[in-house]
């Protein structure tokens, strides 16, 4: 007979556990989804920074080439003026 009260308490505990599980599991899934979204955004930002950093390097190279061309053009113009003198 002492087994019956224990069984009733155990069944009531199981019912409460099932009820709480229905509340806790979706919350856990929501947290996992949130973490996945944050990781996705962080990865996207890192990629953008990498690409934009590469574009900054490309811009520096292009500007350097343009500066050298302009300098060379000035030198060539000077050569023509010297030849006319």
Assembly category? single chain
Strand content range: under 5%
The proportion of residues forming helix, as a percent range, comes to over 70%
Overall spatial form:
rod-shaped
Low-confidence stretches: none
Helix-and-strand structural type: mainly alpha
Q: What is the CA–CA distance across the termini? A: 125 Å
SSE topology string: H
Largest sheet: none
What is the averaged pLDDT score?
A: 76
Q: Count every helix, treating DSSP H or I runs of 4 or more residues as helices.
A: 1
Radius of gyration: 36 Å
Question: How is this structure best described in words?
Answer:
The structure is a single chain. The protein is an all-alpha fold. Helices cover 96% and strands 0% of the residues. It has one helix and no strands. The protein is rod-shaped and about 110 Å long. It starts with a helix and ends with a helix.
């Amino acid at each position: 007979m002492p087994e019956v009260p224990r069984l009733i308490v155990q069944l009531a505990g199981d019912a409460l556990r099932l009820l709480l599980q229905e509340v806790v599991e979706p919350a856990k899934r929501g947290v996992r989804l949130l973490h996945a979204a944050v990781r996705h955004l962080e990865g996207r930002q890192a990629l953008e920074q990498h690409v934009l950093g590469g574009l900054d390097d490309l811009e520096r190279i292009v500007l350097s080439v343009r500066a050298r061309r302009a300098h060379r053009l000035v030198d060539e113009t000077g050569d023509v003026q010297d030849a006319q003198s």
